[in-house]
Amino acid sequence: MSCRLLYLNTHRMSAYAWQQGNLRAEGVFDYNEEGQQSFAEYLGEHRGSQFSLLANVAEEGHALETIPFLQGADRRTLITRKIGQNFLGTPLATSVSLGYEKNQRKNEKLLLSALTNPAHFEPWLRRLSDAEVPLAGIYTVAQLGGQLLKKLGQENSRCLLLTLQDHSIRETYLVDGHAHFSRMAPLSDSSIAGIASAFAAEAGKLHQYQIGQRLIGRDESLPAFIVAHPLTIPAIEKACPAHNQLNFTFIDSHVAKFANRSEEKRNQIDQEYHWANIRQLAKKANVKLDRYLDKTIIISANQLEISLRLSDFFGEQVVELQPFIPGIDSQKWLNCFDAFIAVQNHYDLNTSDNERIRILLEPDAKAVLQEIKKMPKRRVSGIRAENFLRNPFALLGETMSKVISPESFERARDKAGLHLYDFESEVIRIDTGHIKSLKINLIDAVYI
Prior knowledge:
The chain is of the alpha/beta class.
């Protein structure tokens, strides 16, 4: 059974499919009747899947309770009553046992959590029920915070976690990996300076709230983790100076994603994809690179350019395709590309400065190159060449539009002097119906 993730925020539902350890976006459905109808149609197409729902909404509550030592139906009944007392009117609630007090009574400590606005979920859950698809569970972003820090090796008995989602800062107070408090603060300024300022202000507010609720001591030091985009971290570090009460740790969101990847993604090729991304970000931020990243240029290729050349091959005119990657020596790349019978996952080139360029092909770029590789010596002729010049997407596959822009192809065609013409004919007749003259107008062909 395939697995799919649904992500619900204040404004819309997003759907994703799990594919080789990654999430692939499949649809976005607005919070209106039209969006919910489209969502129902989407569910109908995937009845064989198991769904999980992740929510990021403001209406989320947490409460601590202590109950006598009970078992079975008596325990369940009491927990249901406690949930009703704390979160009246919502069926979207759960409890987590935090263990037993070490005394003769052995009272059980419970963490109760609930989504306090069930009306926001009702239309979506109703359509899941109508489609009769299995729903594994409903989770919140706050609930996943402890697992994230654990995977990053940042476990703490008590800490604050601040992240940025849906133009809001999610602030969570974690105790032994469990969310005991969480809130959302809208982000009014999405500039780097605005994000940095908001993180600093919200961390201070959350800390003061914990003190006011007597969850922590006034002079107690507390770890605070901020997960943010790498380009914003220098500004956030400057806005959040260390002080006695809050010890800040700043986590690169790209590193967090890298650390959180599945076991099947922990291989050489996938690691190099991430190194390529890290190198690009480091260059943008003017960060000094270590020797490996400095001398090993890893490029993740998801875009191609193309050059066309008209040549004569034993008396027949043929069109030669020369695909190349922006920023890479085109002749070195073509020599390397032509040296293999099949398209490779990556290609290695050496520069005059003793640098190694490793080119990693994204799936769409690889698919286009595979179509080009099928052509003898990257050449087409005759009616196939004419059809290619009229509609290259039919020959190179549907993914070509994602990899080679139509404008880029038109520039290559014009530079090569390759033109196709259509014509319009106009017949002029005399009164007897006989043809007096025939007029033919040549017009530029329409390229699709």
